[in-house]
């Protein structure tokens, strides 16, 4: 199956014309160590006889993903349009989280055009790519500190929608068709043994939880918290997709940290509450 998808891609790519300033960004899905720096694939290289510009990057882990993409694009003489090949994860064991990062970065630094679907992959297209700005998700972190009783601390947040970074305490309109991104800066103590997860939750004005999204915390090398280096600052990136059926109104976005194995929540020292309010969200009418 892994080799077949590259064959399918080569056949499709052979139909694509060469266009000035256009490049196809293709991610490798293999976990083999020697693939991490690879920029070609034998099956694809043998079967692809087309003229469209292509660049292959390793896209299984998220380590230094933004600068890798920026570097791959900067190596081209000129880039204005990027097509990203997003493999079907259920077929090839790909990384959905990495695909979210790549597409969010391209949307932040360009303009989304369209997506086309094939049997084993999709191609997302972006125009007006800007390589003159830093390829990061945020300009600054909000200086927020939360010390938990489990030997882990938060030292800042950044919230945003697409290209726009939002103030931590800013109330804003959120289009339900768009994805909210959240960067959190963490630090762990010595001898931390717990594997922590976070729960991002929406609460109504009455205080009831109306939506939640949970994920295991991993660093840029995909290591859980019990494998993080003590005192090292770690940034994690999360995406919050609000359901379309969520009614308009005012909500609070809250963070809860808990032990993945025991499900026991960690609590903030001095506050002793499991949930921390990050910001307020105001969902627009008719979105």
- Let me know the CATH homologous superfamily of the largest domain: abc- transporter (atp binding component) like domain
Low-confidence stretches: 31-38
Overall pLDDT metric:
83
* Strand-pairing-aware structural class: alpha+beta
For this structure, what is the CATH class of the largest domain? Mainly Beta
What share of residues are in beta strands? 35-45%
Per DSSP E runs of 2 or more residues, the count of β-strands stands at: 15
- Assign an overall shape: globular
Largest sheet strand order: 2-1-3-5-4
Main beta-sheet strand count, sense and barrel state? 5 strands, mixed
Describe the 3D structure.
It is a single chain. The chain is of the alpha+beta class and 287 residues long. It has two domains: 2-127, Rossmann fold; 146-283, Coagulation Factor XIII, Chain A, domain 1, CATH 2.70.50.60. The protein has helices at residues 2-13, 42-47, 65-74, 89-92, 96-108, and strands at residues 22-28, 53-58, 81-87, 111-117, 121-127, 146-147, 152-161, 164-166, 172-174, 179-188, 196-203, 209-216, 233-241, 249-259, 275-283. It has a five-stranded mixed sheet with strand order 2-1-3-5-4. Strands 6, 7, 8, 10 and 13 form a five-stranded antiparallel sheet that branches. It has a five-stranded mixed sheet with strand order 9-15-14-11-12, with no helix packed on it. A hairpin with a 2-residue loop joins strand 7 (152-161) and strand 8 (164-166). The chain is globular and about 65 Å long. Mean pLDDT is 83; it is low at 31-38.
Question: Which structural traits does this protein have?
Answer:
about 290 residues, alpha+beta, Coagulation Factor XIII, Chain A, domain 1, 2 domains, 5-stranded mixed β-sheet, 5-stranded antiparallel β-sheet, 5 helices
């Amino acid at each position: 199956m892994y080799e077949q998808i590259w064959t399918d891609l080569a056949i499709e790519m052979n139909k694509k014309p060469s266009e000035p300033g256009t490049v196809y960004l293709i991610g490798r899905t293999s976990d083999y160590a020697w693939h991490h720096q690879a920029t070609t694939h034998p099956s694809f290289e043998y079967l692809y006889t087309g003229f469209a510009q292509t660049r292959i990057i390793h896209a299984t882990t998220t380590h230094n993903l933004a600068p890798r993409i920026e570097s791959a694009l900067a190596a081209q003489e000129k880039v204005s349009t990027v097509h990203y090949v997003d493999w079907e994860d259920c077929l090839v064991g790909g990384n959905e989280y990495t695909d979210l990062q790549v597409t969010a970065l391209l949307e932040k630094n360009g303009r989304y055009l369209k997506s086309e679907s094939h049997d084993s992959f999709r191609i997302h297209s972006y125009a007006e790519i800007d390589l003159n700005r830093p390829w990061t998700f945020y300009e600054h972190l909000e200086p927020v500190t939360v010390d938990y009783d489990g030997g882990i601390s938060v030292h800042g947040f950044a919230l945003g929608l697409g290209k726009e970074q939002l103030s931590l305490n800013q109330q804003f309109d959120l289009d339900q068709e768009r994805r909210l991104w959240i960067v959190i800066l963490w630090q762990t103590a010595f001898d931390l043994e717990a594997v922590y997860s976070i729960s991002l939750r929406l609460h109504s004005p009455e205080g009831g939880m109306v939506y939640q999204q949970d994920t295991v915390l991993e660093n840029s090398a995909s290591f859980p918290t019990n494998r993080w280096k003590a005192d090292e600052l770690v940034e994690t990136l999360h995406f919050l997709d609000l359901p379309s059926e969520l009614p308009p109104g005012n909500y609070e976005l809250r963070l809860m940290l808990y032990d993945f194995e025991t499900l026991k929540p960690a609590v903030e020292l001095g506050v002793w509450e499991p949930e921390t309010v990050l910001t307020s969200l105001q969902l627009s009418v008719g979105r």
